[in-house]
Design brief:
380 residues; mainly beta; 2 domains; Thrombin, subunit H
Length: 380
């Protein structure tokens, strides 16, 4: 296997853009950009003359510049020294990226960048270097996320966090990171190619793991960008870049930022990583899937697991205690409909461990409400 990449078992060969051997590097990049036509502005005119209309166009170039200038100061480079015997590779330095999301030094990055680290060094966009401390790894196996903290002695530039549920296919995006661990704060751009993608990655010691609900982008992918932000034209973080297609060009994937929000919040508020947990295996219903499974509606979260070895409702979970069953359709959470614009993961991102939520459930033609007290997702 070529150093720096993790293979994925899908129709194409996908790779987590990971760190390599003693100077190999980690990374994944996605992109963004938006072109917008401003409303024509009226200009003063002489007596009896009609107003002169001036058309102002915000080009793709200026959109990228604006996004990079806003988010760039919050992007960091993370160097790790892997523990001998635990890393996929030999002992050496590996490099990835991250983004400061809180001015007190909290940084969001990829799990695979830091999980085997013996030592972390974080380089800020302005060149300052600080030791990094791992706050925690997201227990949600499908997320590939982790939180790191630095103590800089002063507030740091923090990125503005966006809402990934508002993303649209074809939307222009910008990614910022440190390809090869050398070219800090490099910017790439492209479009959102698709939403809701699922890919499989091979993780050392864990076998194949599914990464779900990913953002697909056509950005060129470079090693060293794993953990870096995918931002919209306003410079808001909408995803964390994590995986690329190793045998194709311009196919990359990012984790939606809404997936990361619960662990970001718990890291800041509690100093550790926790995620609210319902305990169901599900997929979001589309018109196509509704036809395939002969469902009565084309929206909601369908409690079903394609892996015959995994129960759809996990034993001992909050969902089991609340009486949820396989093939239930969760239509709403706290009165808000679940659909392509507001997935179950978005609803849980707004909740906290221990919070009581109300689910509207459709079962065998009958609709009813269930109250569930969310638990804490156990570490896998």
């Amino acid at each position: 296997m070529r150093p720096g990449l993790w293979p994925v078992a899908t129709a194409v060969i996908l790779s987590l853009v990971f760190g390599g051997i003693a100077g190999g590097f980690a990374g994944a990049v996605a992109t963004l950009l938006i072109t917008r036509l401003e409303r024509p502005a009226a200009q003063p005119a002489g007596p009896g003359q009609p107003p002169i209309q001036t058309q102002v166009t915000l080009t793709e170039e200026s959109a990228v510049i604006r996004a990079a200038e806003k988010a760039g100061p919050a992007v960091v480079t993370i160097e790790t020294s892997a523990s001998a015997g635990r890393s996929l590779f030999r002992l050496g330095t590996e490099v990835g990226s991250g983004v400061v999301f809180n001015p007190q030094g909290f940084i969001l990055t990829n799990r695979h960048v830091v999980e085997n680290a013996r030592q972390l060094t974080v380089t800020l966009a302005d060149g300052r270097r600080f030791p990094g401390r791992l706050i925690g790894i997201d227990p949600f196996e499908q997320s590939d996320l982790a939180i790191v903290k630095v103590d800089a002695g002063a507030e740091l530039p923090a990125a503005e966090i966006g809402d990934s549920s508002q993303l649209r296919v074809g939307q222009l995006v910008v990614a910022i990171g440190s390809p090869l661990g050398t070219f800090q704060n490099s910017v790439t751009s492209g479009v959102i190619s698709a939403l809701g993608r699922t890919v499989q990655v091979q993780r050392p010691g864990r076998g194949l793991v599914q990464l779900r609900d990913l953002i697909q982008t056509d950005a060129a992918i470079n090693q060293g960008n794993s953990g870096g932000p995918l931002v919209n034209s306003l410079g808001q973080v909408v995803g964390i870049n994590t995986v690329v297609a190793g045998e194709a060009q311009n196919i990359g994937f990012a984790i939606p930022i809404n997936v990361a929000k619960p662990i970001m919040r718990s890291a800041v508020e509690e100093g550790r990583v926790r995620r609210p947990w319902l305990g169901v295996c599900y997929f979001m219903v589309t018109g196509e899937l509704a036809n395939q499974f002969q469902l009565p509606v084309d929206y909601g979260a369908y409690v079903y697991c394609q892996d015959a070895n995994q129960p759809a409702v996990l034993p001992g979970s909050p969902a089991e205690r609340a009486g949820l069953r396989e093939r239930d359709l969760i239509l709403e959470v706290n009165g808000r409909r679940l659909d392509s614009r507001y997935a179950l993961v978005d609803a849980l991102a707004q909740a906290r461990v221990g919070e009581r939520v109300t689910l509207t459930v459709l079962r065998s033609g009958r609709t009813f409400q269930v109250e569930v007290t969310l638990g804490e997702m156990p570490a896998r």
